[in-house]
Amino acid sequence: MPMKKFINDPQNLTAELLEGLEICFSNKIRIVSDKIVCRANPKSDDKVAVITLGGAGHEPALSGFVGEGMLDASVVGDIFAAPGAPKVLEALRMFKREAGIILVTLNHAGDRMSAGKALRDAAKEGIKVVEIVTSEDISAGIDADPEDRRGLAGCVPLYKVLGAAAEKGMGIDEIVELGERFNRQMATLAVAMTGCTHPQNGDPVAVLPDDEMEIGMGQHGEAGGGRSKILTADETAKRMIEQLIKATDVNSGDNVMLLINGVGATTLMEQLIVYRAASKILAERGIVLTDGWCGEMLTVQEMAGFQMILCKLDADHIELLKAPAAAPYWSA
Amino acid sequence: MLTIGKFKKMVARAGREVGAREKEFSRLDAEAGGDGDHGTAIVAAFRAMQTVEGADFKSYLKSLSEALQSSACGSTSTLYGSWLEGMGEAVGEAVMELDAEGVAAMFSGGLEEIGFVTRAREGHKTLMDALIPATRVLSEAVKNADAGIAFSAAAEAAEAGAMATCAMQAKYGRAKNLGERSIGPRDAGAASMACIFNAFAHEAKLN
Predict the structure, then answer these.
(1) CATH number of the domain enclosing A75
(2) Is A198 considered catalytic here?
(3) Are residues A159 and A200 in the same domain?
């Protein structure tokens, strides 16, 4: 099947999409040194910088969350591919400061390798940087080793919490503590109905039979957990939220944030129907839905499916999530 | 045993032979549960290294590594970039020709650095299943044979290691998420690493 996408030279996808992002949101972001997306109005050097890294092809993630109250920069690789370690090091040098840098790395082999190498070199140069690794996907099992769990769209609310804390002028140790606590208290499950084509070579990624869905599929369409016949929105939501409630250990009276992230081809209509079903189950159990979001945050081309993210919130998290933010694809 | 001129030809040949099998490597990646772009990534890596120069082993390897890691993306560039970086660190300054010990040290240094960036080892269904035995066999073979024979032995070990990944369940990289379903296809990274050693051997055998 030929690839149906509005693209030009497949080798220029990342450069062209970043160019579009910069022109469209020129009041919020600017691109430095080809692949480093920075805030148009940087915050002062006495505040902690929050940086992330990752591949492209997942728009609006990750660069769409660079802006006031969120990320200071995202280091972009290529389609589904992490940036090289030298690029990450370049960004760390750019944001070197007394207050320190927090580098958020999603747990994927390529991202971890580049971050690991850059962090080793940064330490040699005396750059103060602390890494937070997200690995909130529970498809490998609730008790799975964090090293075996993937970082999915849960990085987005984490960016919000870290960015707001940094904007307030909190110290790096305090921010890392509340960020790691947020990180530990969130869980994500993904479900996919169709795969997608790799936009650079047109090859299919993660092929699924027409009448099946798969819970646990990752954000590059890489296969994950169990397959089943397609279920209704309510049945799918129930199956997923129950596992997330168990994983985050939320109980009656606890505050939570629920997010649905459409991964590309699933309509907002479907996402909202699922959101409604999941939130009803939370309400039935007396769990308090304090904050939420439904829409596309981290996509996988034209894959059909969504990620459901549940975060157990403490008082400080609730306040930070409500703080002002002005990124291209997140405002508060 | 191995001159810088010969080594450059080996790298160029590896680029050509990998390039000819781009589709196969992407397909293997997708079949084993990855995101189906290993062929694209490895070809991009060799493209980034195409115009690199350097008069001696150290400067050539350093330039290759930098070119790869700064212009190409993804785990492939970091892994291969680290491999070449480690190789460069293990050879002396301004060396134009390596003896047997030098060749063994260079490839061992590469393996050491790549082992820093990935936790994957033999049996985990990654490129390490080809690289580790190839390095081991090469280091031994260079002691008693010429470069052509030694690299041929290394290539055979890499190929055997790559074929052995068919029966393995992935433990690292994206393919690990597939669990038992990752058993069957060869690992794409091991297959391309075996292809590289094969190209090294083909070139090393020529005068």
Answers:
(1) 3.40.50.10440
(2) no
(3) no
Please compute Rg for chain B using Cα positions.
16
* Domain extent for A278: 186-314
Residues whose CB is less than 8 angstroms from the CB of residue A234 and which lie 6 or more positions away in sequence, other chains included:
A277
pLDDT tens per residue across span A228-264 = 899 999 999 999 999 999 999 999 999 999 999 999 9
Are A165 and A191 contained in the same domain? Answer: no
Task: Verify that A80 and A150 share a domain, yes or no.
Answer: yes
* Cα angle, residue A58 at apex, residues B18 and A15 outer, rounded to 5°: 65
Taking CA atoms, what residue in B is nearest to A82? B74
Q: Which residue of A has its CA nearest to B22?
A: A201
> Is B70 close to A84, i.e. CB distance below 8 A?
yes
- Say how many domains are in chain B: 1
Assign residue A43 a region: left if phi > 0, alpha if psi is -120 to 50, beta otherwise?
A: beta
- Asked, for residue A4, whether it belongs to a domain, the answer is no
Residue A37 in contact with residue A28, Cβ under 8 Å? no
Highest mean pLDDT among A64-68, A149-153, B181-185: A64-68
Q: How do residues A193-208 score in pLDDT, each as one tens digit?
A: 988 888 988 878 777 8
Write down the catalytic residue from A108, A198, A220, A317. A220
CATH number at residue A216: 3.30.1180.20
Nearest to A313 by CA among A300, A325, A322: A322
Q: Is residue A1 part of a domain?
A: no
3-state secondary structure of B32: coil
A152, A218 in Cβ contact below 8 A?
yes
Side chain identity at A173, as an amino acid letter?
Answer: D
**What is the bridge-based pairing of β-strands A212-215 and A227-229?**
antiparallel
Q: How many A-B residue pairs are in contact by the CB < 8 A criterion? A: 109
Q: What is the CATH number of the domain that holds B155?
A: 1.25.40.340
- DSSP letter at A127 equals -
Number of domains in chain A: 2
Residue A108 among the catalytic residues: no
- Answer yes or no: is the ipTM higher than 0.95: no
Same domain for A113 and A54: yes
Mean pLDDT over all residues of chain A? Answer: 94
Residue A3 falls inside a structural domain? no
DSSP state for residue B161 in the 8-state scheme: H
Range of the domain at B115: 2-205
Q: Say how far apart CA A310 and CA A162 lie, in whole Å.
A: 17
Q: 64-83 in A: which are within 8 Å (CB) of B? A: 77-83
**Cβ neighbours of A205 in B, within 8 Å:** 30, 35-36
